[in-house]
Amino acid sequence: MAEKKSGIDQALIRDLANILNETDLTEIEVEQEDMRIRVSRAGTMQYVQAPIAAPAAFAAPAAAPAAAPAGKTRNPDNVVSAPMVGTAYLAPAPGSAAFVQVGSTVKEGQTLLIIEAMKTMNQIPAPKSGTVTEIVVQDGRPVEYGEALVVIE
Description:
The protein is mostly beta strands.
């Protein structure tokens, strides 16, 4: 019998986490009746118990990830990548000043931008102190897991 607490099948979550480890996947999602569980290496786990509807299509296709400027390659250690799928916002509210701009000096832990995922605003912190040399993502655009967001040198 699976161990349950508050309706959440913890054994299923453990099994999904083991599958991630065994297969080197970054994310796995399972749907059963009116429940959906997603486990991700990025540290996000979402539990939804509601009728499952088809996702709404975007009005325009998502832009391909921006390449490094011509003649210049990015050092992967300097790239801040999206820890989740969602919509990126460069400012805390519409019409507000952006969290950072190219040339801004940032400290480790300082908010660089926000990614909205499942109606939750997730602050994306700077993993290190430095200078913002490039903002790759565009405000209000969808981002994929692992996509480059900002470059800090």
